[in-house]
Design goal:
alpha+beta, Aminopeptidase, 2 domains, nine-stranded mixed β-sheet, five-stranded antiparallel β-sheet, 10 helices, elongated
Length: 380
């Protein structure tokens, strides 16, 4: 079994320092500046900040960091996102033994600073031990947690490597090879306002229209590849007014692009048919209506077992004499976007746990294990 001289305490210190630099979505500038300086000190060939901030609204762009190879091998990249969810301000890390949690009522930030810390230690070990490696690129995105905005506005031409790994999932020694595509839906149901006590018969309740359509929908688990959900609703003015506008927002996900299209069309048709079937109000000359907006949230991620990206990480597991678990996930990430650019990307789990909660935690042993896996990936 191969082993690598990872400095556990240095890795732990890097992780804590990263977590305690606030970087909620659209406020990644401080951590981006820290990382830019750090990778420059570590001898990067280049650190490029793109112009995505103008489109994402963040206070900085994505970073693409490049390290020259020492041998003639294929270039690979590692991708992490710099932003964290809220509450993510004033993070103070508590360490008990090898376990990291937060002292304050915030997230820890292991999503995704565990991945960033492991990449930093990877570069340090490669440099200190003069380990042979091909070109390595590090992609650091903004605004992942609010719709993958940084990745969506990244210029893929900045990335020379054609394959790599996004470090962004719970678990350890786990690789995500597939994730669904998703459509976001916004449905605006227009009824007809009227006084609910004086002349309710002159109104058409947008609530009732929306409720009837929702009752007719198939939601939840649609099949082994697909899900649908509506999770937001707003509307109405007062209890004594028949509501004339209800807005609901939801999503459809599927590992099959054809099913995603069909299920989305099914939802659209259901709302249109309910509204169309509602009779015109007597004497008003008005009709209820519906407006539906469908936004492609992210495309499907699907890597075959014999894809070189998968074979490489499998061989890395063999070097370490570990069993790597390959899974298909139910959510999207930057990896979905990278794959749509033609950049073959699998997702490697970083050990983070209970993410997006104030109970978030991370075990240093898992962070060391992740770094060992990245070193093995570079070696093979």
């Amino acid at each position: 079994m191969i082993s690598y001289p990872i400095d556990r305490e240095r890795l732990a210190g890097t992780f804590v320092q990263l977590c305690e630099i606030d970087s909620p979505s659209r406020e990644e500038g401080r951590v981006a500046s820290y990382l830019s300086d750090l990778f420059t000190e570590l001898g990067s060939e280049s650190v490029v900040e793109d112009d995505s901030a103008a489109k994402t609204g963040a206070d900085c762009g994505n970073l693409v960091v490049r390290f020259s190879g020492t041998v003639d091998k294929e270039a690979i990249f590692f991708a992490c996102h710099m932003d964290t969810v809220e509450p993510g301000r004033g993070v103070k890390v508590r360490r008990v033994g090898d376990n990291f949690t937060t002292l304050s009522n915030t997230v820890l930030g292991g999503d995704d600073k565990s991945g960033i810390a492991a990449v930093i230690e990877l570069i340090r070990v490669l440099k200190e031990e003069s380990l042979p490696h091909g070109p390595i690129e590090i992609i650091l995105t903004t605004c992942e947690e609010i719709g993958l905005l940084g990745a969506k506005n990244l210029d893929p031409g900045l990335v020379l490597a054609k394959s790599g790994y996004a470090l962004d999932s719970t678990g350890i020694d786990t690789v995500i090879t597939g994730a669904p595509a998703a459509n976001r839906l916004k449905v605006e149901v227009h009824g007809i306002a009227a006084h609910a006590g004086l002349n309710p018969e002159q109104g058409v309740s947008a609530f009732c229209l929306a409720a009837r359509a929702i009752a007719d929908l198939r939601l939840g688990r649609l099949d082994e590849q697909s899900t649908a959900n509506f999770g937001l609703i707003k509307g109405g003015v007062a209890t004594n007014i028949v509501p004339d506008l209800i807005t609901i927002e939801g999503e459809v996900r599927s590992h099959s692009p054809a099913k995603l299209r069909d299920y989305t069309f099914e939802i659209e048709s259901t709302f249109r048919n309910v509204v169309k079937g509602w009779s015109e109000q007597v004497g008003t000359g008005k009709h209820p209506s519906v407006e539906i907006t469908v936004e492609k949230e992210y495309p499907v991620l699907s890597l075959e077992d014999d894809d070189p990206t998968i074979l490489r990480v499998r061989r890395a597991g063999d070097l370490l004499e570990r069993e790597i678990i390959f899974q298909v996930a139910g959510g999207g990430s930057d990896a979905n976007i990278f794959n749509s650019y033609g950049l073959k990307t699998a997702i490697i789990a970083t050990g983070m746990d209970k993410v997006h909660t104030t109970d978030e935690c991370l075990d240093l042993r898992d962070l060391v294990s992740l770094t060992e896996l990245l070193l093995a990936v570079v070696e093979v």
